[in-house]
Amino acid sequence: MAAEDDGEQRVEYAEEEVCPEGAPEWVVTFGDMMSLLLTFFILLLSFATMDVMRFKELAGTIKQGFGLKVIEKTVVVPKAQSLIRLQPKIDFNARQIMERLRRKLDPSSPTRRTAKVTIELFQVYQGVVVLFPADEIFEPGTDRIRPAARPLILTVAGELREQNALRAAEPEALPPLELSVEVRSPEGAPRAALFADVWSLTAAQAVAVARLLRSEGEVPAGEVRAIGRGPAPPTPRPGTLTPPATGSTVEFIFVSQPMKPKD
Questions:
Q1: Nearest one of 177, 199, 140, 201 to 259, comparing CA atoms
Q2: pTM for the full model?
Q3: Which residues contact 84 (CB under 8 A, 6 or more apart)?
Q4: 2 within some domain
Q5: What domain range is 149 assigned to?
Q6: What digits encode the pLDDT tens for the residues 184-239?
Q7: 63/131 same-domain check
Q8: Are residues 53 and 123 in the same domain?
Q9: Which helix H or strand E contains 209, and what residues bound it?
Q10: CA distances from 230 to 78, 196, 211, 254 (A)
């Protein structure tokens, strides 16, 4: 019996393990990996769109998460400017000149009482214009200046001297203003017996005024011009519907000389 017992083989049975319910763990791990890969490819696809604002938003969110400051650069687009200037631009104080001349040539001023002359004062691109009717400045058909008009012409000359004195007193001395004397006569003006044509008449009248400015107005020769415009129309007022003066006119234009470049 003992031998038989020794010859028998013992069989041991292992206990049966109970598997947890649900999918195996490796399947869950694989699913997580696939989800991450899918998310990664979706992000790549979203970055493939060329939307600058989305790039900035994503980059800003990441930087803020790491505590970095987001510096946004803005580009200022200049506004469109019109090539047509609505108001004349002059490099000297035209408003001051106009106010001073209005005060000096006011109808109640002593200078104006002796001469019943119609005066127009306005501003153009060239400068400030003081316009007189030629018939009230000259004897009809001649280049002789009326005695009553001389004080008005000398008043304009005095304003030129005062303005140039102020410009010379500036820290950076400005070039003096010039006074352009321009006489214009319309096409239908009566012919003057002493002159061949309207060109000769307007040129002689402009020279006569320039001589008065130099002799009695003490205006230097380099600061006055005499121009006979012939049958040219009067200078119109800019930006207004007022028609230009009719008939012959004498115009005093305060013109600024171009500044010379510094060495």
A1: 177
A2: 0.60
A3: none
A4: no
A5: 94-256
A6: 987 766 666 788 888 898 999 999 999 999 999 999 988 999 999 988 888 887 76
A7: no
A8: no
A9: helix 198-215
A10: 46, 12, 19, 20
